[in-house]
Structures
1.
Amino acid sequence: NAGVTQTPKFQVLKTGQSMTLQCAQDMNHNSMYWYRQDPGMGLRLIYYSASEGTTDKGEVPNGYNVSRLNKREFSLRLESAAPSQTSVYFCASSETGLSYEQYFGPGTRLTVT
Amino acid sequence: AQTVTQSQPEMSVQEAETVTLSCTYDTSENNYYLFWYKQPPSRQMILVIRQEAYKQQNATENRFSVNFQKAAKSFSLKISDSQLGDTAMYFCAFSKTGFQKLVFGTGTRLLVSP
């Protein structure tokens, strides 16, 4: 099992460009999440999907959109990148129900110039 | 809203010694979960230990144990017999019961030296 995979691992964008971060899990989990990690601020939830077909905003959703393509895949899109979106992005997945462990992907380091 | 506070930005310890990382949280919930995650230089987030608030017994996982003080809203992590591989950022996190969204603290960077 690969667990949670993310592509790409690194990306540099210019201000105003768009891109989609891809995430896939092979653990048959219902719930998936996108976090961003900034220095000194820990991880903050951007969007989550409790089950296939549903998505909800987290703590910092502005400037992002998500798509739960199917049970395995959950993508994060930046329509018009801004320097404030320079961060490390993590995707995670978990079972639904009680607070099960979240399994994290390896992260994507995004730089917006 | 829930908040998680880690007041120690950095800690250091020598190999084989014991170190305790602090975490406090604020919530009006009675049932919830608390977690410690480890993030080594590889950047991978790894669950270290989990505590369910309704359980009075402190969780332990090999060299890792917690001191959960519900009334004080404190959740510290004790690492015994520290190893070089324990060098990492450690994040405390909170989740309401049945609600998987995690709220993270700002992290403590732990350096284990020979």
2.
Amino acid sequence: DTAVSQTPKYLVTQMGNDKSIKCEQNLGHDTMYWYKQDSKKFLKIMFSYNNKELIINETVPNRFSPKSPDKAHLNLHINSLELGDSAVYFCASSQVQKGTDTQYFGPGTRLTVL
Amino acid sequence: GENVEQHPSTLSVQEGDSAVIKCTYSDSASNYFPWYKQELGKRPQLIIDIRSNVGEKKDQRIAVTLNKTAKHFSLHITETQPEDSAVYFCAAPHSGGYQKVTFGIGTKLQVIP
């Protein structure tokens, strides 16, 4: 069974377009995240949702808009795509407990902006 | 906030040798320290973690040590094998409020057969 899934796996698009990435987790976790991994492999948190509420927004441009329709889903919509948005985007989930927080990652979405 | 520094950024070892990756953190209240392994083209996955009430934890060929006084923790891989080649990330959660995890920059480990 896939614990955290993302679609699509690959996304190639032109500058200026709008695109969405979807994420679903079947682990029953209460917290979901979006990370951006650039070409240097640095993992940077973008957003975190706890029980459908936005908890963390790490100064991401407002062209990026996350939406969590329920605890099991966290989608990412990107407007007016730019070349610098090219990266691998990982969704992750965790069960927030005081003192531990194992992140379970999705397979990633490789976004290429031409 | 939490600041996590990881080194080295790249590491090459001969098969069978040991590899050590080190991380330091800034938030003295942090109490949970996971290590993730990311193989080429794959997702990061937890390989081992340690809580602040222990100094060392082992799982077969991998071990993690923690020095809370010095605020650093290390990943040790013994008898390295080619399948250990990957990028390894340390991480530390922020102590306040909901968990926000800061990752180190990653260490690309290459095990040479």
